[in-house]
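User: Predict the complex.
Assistant: Input components as received:
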Amino acid sequence: MIKNGCLLLLVFSFFSCHSGKILTVQQTAKPAVLPGGAPRYSDVCFSSRWERPRHAQDTFETFSAAAGFHATYLNWVYTTNPRFIQKADSLGYKLQVALTPTLPDLPFGSETNLQGRIVNKAGNSVTAPWMKGWDNWWGCVNHPVFQNTYFAYVRAALEAGAYGFQVDDPAMGFLLLRNKWEDVCYCEHCRRKADSLGVQPPDIQEASAREFHQKMKQQAEALAGRPVPFSCNNFEGDWELFPFDQFDFGVAEVPERRANPEYLYATIREARRLGKAQVFTFANDRDWLVQKMIAATYACGGNPLVPWDVWMGGGRDRYFGKPETYAPLYAFVRANAQWLDGYEDAFYATSQDDPRFINTQQFPVSFDEYRRQVHAFVRAKPDDTTAPVVVHLIDWHVLMEPFSIRLNERRFFKKGIRSVELLTPVDYDPGAHEAARASSDYSAMVASQSLSFTRDGDLIRLKIPKLNWHWGVLVVR
Ligand SMILES: [Zn+2]
């Protein structure tokens, strides 16, 4: 109790007594530079995990699907096909080619994974537990043949016009060791390197994986003559586990147990603190939950992958979301690039902030009622005292309903709040989406209304209508 009281007192003092003045949201928003090559806040990230159609019966086609969701960035694609990569480049997409510890042997098109592989003490090739039976043997980062194979994929991708790379299982052989799945690697190259250092082969795996990624990035950049972004699959958006921090940004799954706005906010805020960016992928049978996750991820300053061609586990079919279910949200993002890019995290409030302990009226945004469960993410242009401030509102209820909020004028602008505009996504109309795509004019993809408000001291009170697409953006001037 006492501990909580102190913490709350600290929060309160922070907001009320900073330099003897009221701290504004432009002051709490900190300037941030996205890591090189990371998606912008307004990018629409789309993954066709393979080039589609994959075979004669495959009804999906990568580029028409990407266009259907207004994609701008193609992530995590397993391909070595130069025609596919060139096409992505010519259509203006940034394309990330996927790399893994199990890349097949050369030449491209080979389906064997036998050369330059990790071996255990008994001299056998190894794989991860979930890959048993796939003949998917893991490559050794110290083996020149595997290094050569890996860089051949990098070279082919760059020469065809790929923008960067996504590395899955980036801990390489060290992952097998760390999880005690295998005691590795006893290939001749690992043995020799370990001997020269006077240690055992498993002892060199962590450092070797780090050196391997450094070397691949250096070689890629020397070849391309530019910075080449490498992201990795940092499961759940984690940055602590080796070797995630070595990568420019993360593209990772969020498991269902983490599918909530509090988790997204904490994770994405931490990524920004570390100078990283985060793309999340989430798929679920409940479309409305996926929609809420898309909205909340953007509201926090992350990028949610379009839920298309997503592995669902448990022997289920891959998930392919439909444009009518998700395109309105992504078109809304394209329409609102000016309210996303350049804006940084300034404040987060939920309708569960407890007014019994905190004077929530001091907050930039607060709620009259303690209830489940509305989330407000305030984003501002750092130190720009005149630019509009945006407040992303996410209704996390299964059944949405109207609600009211309060803005503390003194947290926004010296001269108070003049107007508040509510922007919301628009229901799906294929013709309108086609027209927006063709003209790059997305103005019809957003509904706008001016909200009237009442004043009560420093507070203004607003009634927010039901947010049919879970998401509303207030533009506060
Ligand atoms: Zn080895």
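The pocket of zinc ion is lined by residues 118, 140, 142-143, 185, 187, 189-190 (CB under 6 Å).
Let me know if you want any component modeled separately.
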